[in-house]
Every structure is written in structure tokens, then in C-alpha cells.
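for the recovery benchmark. C-alpha cells below, seq after
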């Protein structure tokens, strides 16, 4: 993750959506910003936004929101979108309202369309985002797929061949791993992320995806206790699993 920045208190809290810098100054003067048990009355004081700052700072009686460098996993429900260009409610509406005023803003790492559910990552950390999506990181994504029609029998071979062309494209898909659960339910693992790839490749095979759920990114699996619409901050162990790395000692 990125190195922790040092910011003026008023700028730090304003960037986290707590209000204008003037409003933050008034909070500080009133003794409502507390760090390590001591009030911070000077809003111009510089604070290092370390990952543990939320455990050390209290604002107006509540723990500080997570500082920049935030990364989340969400169990995206059906019916919400990741893009402002799509109609309907956005995944950002599932987060606390103040988080929608954060600067830098939270962005999704890749997208799931409105009719796809499951594991979605969000972050305000640009280097982390680019590391996840970089082909060099080799972060695969696994989807559980329900199909409209029974499998014909050659899908595993065709998808794994590395020769399938999607309509309108001239570059073949990378080999796709596919496990058959029954004649209309499969699990596929992608090693690239093209637009609506799962739906398009099954359409090319003469079938239709009726339900699509992502349950794994890299080595990180969607927790079974994370309900649809819920989210949690990524731990160091989550990040290590994501990239297939050993957790820090």
C-alpha cells in the first residue's frame, strides 16, 4: 500500500468528508478532535495518516474514519451498478454518506455489471488499484455461472484452448479454466478482464448466462459471513492472499 502522508489536521479531516476546513477548525477549538487521549485544538497541526489512526483519533465522540490508503471488499448485491454511466443505484450508496465526500475518492477496482453479484474491491489508493489490475500481478477472478441451456460437452476444451474469439475482437481470449458442477452450472476462472467477458463467451458458445456471481479474486475468497450489500476493510492477510503472498510476520 502507499506510504502514509502527513497532512494538516483540517485538510486531513476535510478530505475524509467531515466538513469544510473552517468547520474542522471549529471542531478542534471545541476540543472535539482527540488524538491518543489529548485534544488537538490547533487545526493547522500536521498529522501522519498512519493505518492505525482510526484507533488513536476520535472526532466528535466517534473513532476517526479510515484514513487514505483505504481498501475494501464488498459483497455486491444484484441491482446496483459500479458506473455512473449506468442507470440505477450505485455501489457507493451502500457506503457511509461521508465516505462519498472523501478526497481522494473511492473507486471500484474493475466492475461488476448490474446483474452480477459478488466480490468487489474498492480503494482510494491508486498504486494498489493498478497493482491489482496489472497483468504482471496475474490476479485471476473466479465466477459461479448458471446457464439457460445444458452444456454441449465441448465447452471445457474450447474455453481452455486460448483460441476463442469474441464478437468484434481480433485477439483470442487467454485460456479459461472451467469446472462443471452440473449440466447448467459451472465455475470459470479468468486471467484477464474483458468487457462482459463471461456473458459474451457463453453467448459465443450458443448459451446464455442467467446468473453470475464472483466469489474469488486472486487468492482471496468472498467470506461466507459477508452478507449481500455489506463490506469490510481489507486486512494485511487479505492483501497477502489477494496477491498470493505470505502474510507479514
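predicted aa per position
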Amino acid at each position: 500500500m502507499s506510504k502514509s502522508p502527513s497532512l494538516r489536521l483540517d485538510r486531513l479531516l476535510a478530505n475524509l468528508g467531515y466538513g469544510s476546513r473552517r468547520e474542522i477548525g471549529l471542531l478542534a477549538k471545541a476540543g472535539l478532535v482527540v488524538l491518543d487521549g489529548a485534544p488537538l485544538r490547533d487545526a493547522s497541526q500536521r498529522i501522519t495518516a498512519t493505518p492505525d489512526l482510526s484507533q488513536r483519533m476520535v472526532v466528535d465522540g466517534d473513532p476517526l474514519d479510515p484514513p487514505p490508503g483505504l481498501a475494501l471488499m464488498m459483497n455486491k448485491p444484484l441491482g446496483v451498478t459500479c458506473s455512473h454511466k449506468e442507470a440505477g443505484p450505485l455501489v457507493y450508496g451502500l457506503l457511509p454518506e461521508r465516505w462519498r465526500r472523501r478526497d481522494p475518492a473511492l473507486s471500484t477496482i474493475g466492475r461488476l455489471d448490474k446483474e452480477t453479484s459478488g466480490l468487489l474491491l474498492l480503494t482510494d489508493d491508486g498504486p494498489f488499484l493498478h497493482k491489482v489490475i496489472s497483468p504482471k500481478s496475474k490476479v485471476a477472478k473466479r465466477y459461479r455461472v448458471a446457464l439457460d441451456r445444458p452444456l454441449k460437452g465441448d465447452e471445457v476444451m474450447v474455453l481452455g484452448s486460448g483460441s476463442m474469439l469474441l464478437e468484434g475482437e481480433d485477439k483470442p481470449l487467454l485460456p479459461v479454466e472451467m469446472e462443471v458442477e452440473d449440466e447448467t452450472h459451472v465455475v470459470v476462472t479468468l486471467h484477464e478482464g474483458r468487457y462482459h467477458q463471461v456473458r459474451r463467451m457463453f453467448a459465443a458458445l450458443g448459451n446464455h448466462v442467467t446468473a453470475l456471481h464472483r466469489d474469488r479474486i486472486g487468492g482471496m475468497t468472498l467470506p461466507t459471513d459477508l452478507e449481500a450489500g455489506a463490506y469490510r476493510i481489507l486486512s494485511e492477510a487479505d492483501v497477502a492472499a489477494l496477491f498470493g503472498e505470505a502474510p507479514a510476520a
